[in-house]
Each structure stands twice: as C-alpha cells, then as structure tokens.
Amino acid sequence: MSALCGETDPEAFFPEKGGSTRDAKRVCTGCEVRAECLEFALTNDERFGIWGGLSERERRRLRLQRRDAITA
C-alpha cells in the first residue's frame, strides 16, 4: 500500500494562501490510502495542507459535522 502523494511534488499539497488545491485533490481521488490519510489528519489536528483530499476548511467543517452528530 502506498500513498500517491509520495510520488508527486509535495508543494502541491501545501499551496500558498489562496493557491489552487485542485492538483493535490486530483491525486487524492485515486489514492488507496485516502481514508487513512484523512483520519490521520483529523486525529492529529493537522492545520495545513491537503490531507485525504480535503483542505483545512473542509476538514474543520467535517470535524464540526461529526461533533454535531455525536451530540445530537
């Protein structure tokens, strides 16, 4: 099992503020460890970059949705 991001330019996964995340997300789409990557980022509160195909903002939204589902 290998992460596709290991075979690409790491800078694509950490774009400058306002930069495009499209290329990184495209790589994540076909990655066999995408779910594990996302869970790692959520568990470790990764604040920067694309992890498991989601940006910081998207991971924050997912965290809130999960928390709301637990408290509902």
Describe the structure.
Residues 4-61 form the 4Fe-4S Wbl-type domain. [4Fe-4S] cluster binds at residues 5, 28, 31, 37. Its cofactor is [4Fe-4S] cluster. Acts as a transcriptional regulator. Probably redox-responsive. The apo- but not holo-form probably binds DNA. The protein has helices at 22-29, 34-43, 56-71. It has 72 residues and is mostly helical. 47% of the residues lie in helices and 0% in strands. The protein has one domain (4-71).
Question: What is shown here, in short?
Answer:
With 72 residues, the chain is an all-alpha fold. The chain has helices spanning 22-29, 34-43, 56-71. The protein has one domain (4-71).
Keywords:
72 residues, 47% helix, 0% strand, iron, cytoplasm
Question: Roughly how much helix do the residues carry, as a percent range?
Answer: 40-55%
Average pLDDT confidence is 93
**What characterizes the major β-sheet?**
none
**Beta-strand percent range:** under 5%
Going by helix content, strand content and strand pairing, the class is mainly alpha
Q: Total domains, how many? A: 1
Strand and helix order: HHH
Unreliable segments (pLDDT under 50, ≥5 consecutive)? none
Euclidean distance between termini CA atoms: 36 Å
What is the 3D shape?
globular
Rg to the nearest angstrom?
Answer: 13 Å
Total of DSSP H or I helical runs spanning 4+ residues: 3
**Overall number of strands:** 0
